[in-house]
Amino acid sequence: MRKTTQQLPDVALHNLYGPTEAAVDVTAWACPRDLEGDRMSIGAPVANTRMYVLDAQGQPVPVGVAGELYIGGVQVARGYLNRPELTAEKFMADPFADDADAMMYRTGDVGCWLADGTIDYQGRNDDQVKIRGFRVELGEISSALQDCRGVQEAVVIARGTGAAKQLVGYYTSDEAVGAEAVKAELSARLPEYMVPSAYVALESLPLTPNGKVNRKALPEPDDSALIRHAYEAPQGETELKLAAIWQQLLGVAQVSRHDHFFELGGHSLLAIRLVSEVQKQGFRLDLATLFTAPVLSSLASVITASSAASLAADPVIPFRTTGSQTPLFIVPEFSGELLYGPALTAVIDADIPVYGLSAPDRMQPSLKTYQHMATRYVQMIRRTQPEGPYRLLGWSTGGVVAYEIAAQLLGLDQTVEFLGMLDSWKPGLIQRPALSGQAMMRELSRGMVNYLMQQSGQTVDLPQSGDWQDDYRIAKATGCLPASWSETYFHNMLIHQKDFLNAEYHALPLPVEIDLFAAQDNPSALGELYLGWDQVLDTAQIHVESVPGEHFELVTGACLPHVGQAISAAVARRRKAASSGLLSGQQTGQPYEPVVTLQAGVPGQPVCICIPGAGDNVLSFVDLVQSMPKTQTMLALQPRGLWGNGVPHASVEAAAAFYLQALTPRLQQREIHVLGHSFGGWVAMALVKQMEDKGIQVASLTMADSRAPVTPRQEEYTNLETMMWLIRLFEMRGKSLGLTEAMLAPMAPEARLQRLHLALTESGLMHARTTLKEVTAIYRSFSANVRTRYLPETLPKTPARLLLAHDVPDTRQPEWQSFMPSVQIFHSPGNHVTLLKSPDVTLLAEIILGQAAI
After folding, report:
1. Is 294 helix (H, G, I), strand (E, B) or coil?
2. What is the pLDDT of residue 612?
3. Which of 55-59, 136-140, 153-157 has maximum average pLDDT?
4. 41-66 confidence digits (pLDDT tens)
């Protein structure tokens, strides 16, 4: 419908419903252009028409309850010609009409009344259904089920819609016939798509007054109807992620680590979707592996082993492992190849070990944000060197990635001793010409091949026309390509490079000093002393050293010795400063006290620790404080990065450890309650676990509308995506900011923040005196939080409660029940934001005080 309205903007679209037996059109609906959701109503009755939604006893059902559709009115036919039995079945007296002779028609269609007086059409109630593209006769499957050993009576129906539709078998038997045996016998007789996914054993089948099976009275199957194994909670990151995906795809509330994908209702189409979802999580999986290891724990073991092999095949590059000093990590620029690594290492102080960070596997999907690239590199760095201080160096765009790596290391409360940028310009300083995808691929292939030929001492003119395949074939013929570079590898490498160059990065201030090595012979347009970094950092934080050569000569040829000497001297200078206690990279600047007292309370009485959601601050709990007893101490934790020059935490565990250190002197011997809202719920969970590990007893853990930390989720969010997410949260306060993705997409990151700042202050959602710096800090903190992954290995033992907003996705509650089976779940009348505001916040206060009823 949306596609039609886009293609025909001046044409009104109407949805009409009706069978031939009632002169075709009996309901009509004008399709709105701003339709929400993915369902279309069939509308309301047209003139002189009556529509009824009746249950199995022929009685009207309430709004929202499904029933069979009946049609009354002047247009209803008298019956079928020469078919009295069918006429008697389908045409009957209308008991709801004033006219005693009025008739109504039984359609066989299923629907329900909506609140606006229209009807939601839900399909046919016939015996013939389509399952995963196959049309099957339910009667045929019912007969096969009834023929199974020990089964007396049986019926099979289809439940669900679309890809979620599944066959459910109901049966009676004198003896205890298990679902496993029934399914095994049916699997030997019927094609896979005709074998029911769930089985319900009944004492007797429900019947209608005329003796037929009353399909509408058959009970909804629960998890016990599936072939299940003794429940044991999934263990480890891979099992938890797989279990969450299975729950989502299979529609089950809980998955044991011993459950079988296909016995839980999985089939070939869902298997394809499973492989796709697993691959989105960064794991390797194919259908063959799934079919040979369909049990969750065994599949996770295979995936983990494959991932470990992948990591082993993609480690840091040991350019030099000898030396007594802290190692230096070289961050690759957009090419990702670090072909200049050995030569650059050779001219750096021999007492410094040097490692290169290898680019992502070219056969895997490319990374499209600097933040995700940096997260991957941080993991590689810390596998090699678990604790700081760290030394980083990047040439060209590699220096920008190194800057984001430094930000994330600081967010992990690590220190950065040396951050070297070899002719790295601030993002956005140079405007590249806009190129199509293919044109960009050609430019990249020409650049790579010319560089390789230059390194091998060859000169071959590449054709001006043609494509990247031509460049590859010429380079292959000259022998300048590495032997391992197949055409597929070369093509994927170009895709990775293109996506890197298309990635947007907004550099924000860090409490570090950088060593900037600027090429002397750059064109005048690039002759800025600080290469644009003075727009990000104070000039006192930037040490600039000019080195001979132009941009590409810094990592090749005669310029390398000068570059190596400059890098070695800068590292030595930073090392000396560190030994004198002047190490850059500490969280310094304006005083920052994370613990804020919202209510002093009475000494010895309970204390409640409140942790805000992503990008939010301690003032979000003001209404909650007013709902709590005055005797209770209310403490809130102000996330780092919202004021001063601190960097937002880059992991949930690091934030919790930082808070615990600040909290410990204030806890004394008191009853402790911990509350976290949204992302703060994750931090609360980690904080409570760390408290338990230190022997600090916690009375309760409450999470307010937090996502379960096992939900499969997109790991990469662009700057624009995080900003639109933040805008939606602001608008939950009841005011529109008037900002759309289409409006913001063409803007530079700085311009978007300026536009957001203006919209927030003009709408009244933020005070008129709110500064752009303050809005930027909120956005920065929010973006860092939503990009943070969290998957706890072990859960806290403290009693846990969860408050869900009224508009959460349907999957939120079962995900939590699977992840933390003992959690008590409550439902707020408010949305994600207003559940912290009066009057909705009263329920949250009652939960914390243990006074709320489930």
Report:
1. coil
2. 97
3. 153-157
4. 999 999 999 999 998 889 998 888 88
CATH superfamily entry for domain 595-713+790-848 = Alpha/Beta hydrolase fold, catalytic domain (3.40.50.1820)
Q: Which among 390, 316, 306, 404 is positioned nearest to 356, based on CA atoms?
A: 316
Determine the Cα–Cα distance for residues 614 and 786; give it in Å rounded to an integer: 7
According to CATH, the topology of domain 317-427+505-579 is Rossmann fold (3.40.50)
Angle at which helix 370-384 crosses helix 397-411, to 10 degrees, equals: 70
Type of residue at 594: P
In tens, the pLDDT along 731-763 reads 998 899 999 999 999 999 999 999 999 999 999
Residue written as token pair 């230096």? 328
Mean pLDDT of 76-96: 91
H and E: helices and strands count for the chain? 24, 27
Structure tokens at 377: 């590199």
Q: How far apart are CA 282 and CA 367, in angstroms?
A: 11
Sheet holding 317-320, edge to edge: 317-320, 354-356, 328-331, 390-395, 416-422, 514-519, 542-547
Q: Where are the beta strands (DSSP E) in 486-592?
A: 514-519, 542-547
Q: Say if CB 267 and CB 193 are below 8 A apart.
A: yes
Sheet holding 44-45, edge to edge: 14-17, 27-30, 44-45
As a whole number, mean pLDDT of residues 59-75 equals 90
Distance CA 276, CA 268 (A): 13
Q: In this predicted structure, what is the pLDDT of residue 587?
A: 47
The CATH class of the 2-124 domain is mainly beta
Which fold does the domain 236-312 belong to in CATH? 1.10.1200
Count how many residues are written for the chain. 854
Between CA 435 and CA 159 the distance in angstroms is 50
Half-sphere exposure of 393 (CA within 13 A, CB side): 24
Contacts of 265 (CB under 8 A, 6+ apart): 166, 197, 198, 226, 250, 251, 252
Name the pTM for this structure: 0.67
| Closest alpha carbon to 518 in 547, 496, 539 | 547
Burial of 308 (0-12, 13-18, 19+ CB in 10 A): exposed
- Contacts (Cβ under 8 Å, ≥6 apart) of 698: 672, 673, 674, 688, 691, 692, 796, 798
Mean pLDDT of the chain: 87
Enclosing H/E stretch for 318: strand 317-320
What token pair was written down for 180? Answer: 């496993």
Q: Is the pLDDT of residue 586 over 80?
A: no
CA neighbor of 424 nearest in space, from 403, 455, 405? 403
Q: Which of 57-71, 293-307, 335-349 has the lowest mean pLDDT?
A: 293-307
Segment 391-416 shows an average pLDDT of 97
543 Cβ neighbours under 8 A, 6+ residues apart: 513, 514, 515, 516, 570
Q: How far apart are the first and last CA of the chain?
A: 42
pLDDT confidence bin for 589, thresholds 50/70/90: very low
Residue type for position 743: M
Neighbours of 90 (CB within 10 A): 19
Helices 652-667 and 679-693: crossing angle in degrees, nearest 10, is: 60
**Which of 194, 198, 200 is CA-nearest to residue 263?**
198
Which of 665-674, 679-688, 811-820 is predicted most confidently?
679-688
What is the per-residue DSSP string for 7-52? H-TTS--EEEE--GGGTS--EEEEPPTT--SS----BEE-TTEEEE
CATH of domain 128-225: 3.30.300.30
Nearest to 809 by CA among 107, 181, 266, 248: 248
Amino acid present at 477 = A
Closest C-alpha to 801, from 720, 715, 685: 685
pLDDT, greater one: 271 or 728: 728
